[in-house]
Amino acid sequence: MLNKIKSFFDQHIAPSESVQVEEEELHLACAALLIEMMHMDDVVRPEEKAMIVRRIKEHFVLSDEAANTVIALAEEQRTQAIDYYQFTSLINKGFSQEQKITVIKLLWEIAFADGELDIYEEHLVRKIADLLHISHMDYIKTKLQVDHR
Predict the structure, then answer these.
(1) Degrees (nearest 5) of the Cα angle 37, 86, 117?
(2) How far apart are CA 138 and CA 19, in angstroms?
(3) Longest Cα pair distance anywhere in the chain, in angstroms?
(4) Which of 16, 30, 85, 132 is the most exposed place for a label (fewest CB within 10 A)?
(5) pLDDT 10s per residue in the chain (149 long)?
(6) SS3 state at 4
(7) C-alpha distances out from residue 4 to 8, 11, 12, 64, 67, Å
(8) Alpha helices in 14-96 (DSSP H)
(9) How far apart are CA 39 and CA 48, in angstroms?
(10) Residue 14: alpha-carbon gap to chain centroid
């Protein structure tokens, strides 16, 4: 009986040593977080949507069609998600610290895209920064780099 339980845990719960995160999964995870940021203040503005499309295309070097597909799939995943961990865990596995800081910078860009920083937007960036193990110094530094108000 104990062997069956151990076998179950080994197969289904134990972390795999060679976990590889697909590039497409990282694109979706980042896009889902950016889309979540766009929805944080309950007002979706065209400039926020345009900024997301532009940043996804630039950051991941995608065509218009590919970027729109990623955004559509990410929107679907975002609405089905119960928390941010499913996105941040992929980013933690697949991105370097520098790339994760870039994700935080992208979140700030979406937060400031409409010229206003909502308290819920700031809270989301802080929460994602914590989940991505970003230092408070880098959190503040990226905010100051983006804030041009």
Answers:
(1) 15
(2) 27
(3) 64
(4) 16
(5) 555 555 555 555 544 444 566 888 999 999 999 999 999 988 888 888 899 999 999 989 988 889 989 999 999 999 998 899 999 999 999 999 999 999 999 999 999 988 888 899 999 999 999 999 999 999 999 999 998 65
(6) helix
(7) 6, 11, 12, 50, 45
(8) 23-39, 46-60, 64-80, 85-94
(9) 9
(10) 25
Show the 3-state SS of 75-144.
Answer: HHHHHHCCCCHHHHHHHHHHCCHHHHHHHHHHHHHHHHCCCCCCHHHHHHHHHHHHHCCCCHHHHHHHHH
Tokens encoding 134: 């970003």
Matching residue, tokens 């345009």: 50
- Rg (the chain; Cα; Å): 17
> Model-level pTM greater than 0.90?
no
3-state secondary structure of 2: helix
Q: What angle do CA 141, 148, 123 make, to 5 degrees?
A: 55
- CATH fold of the domain at 23-146: TerB-like (1.10.3680)
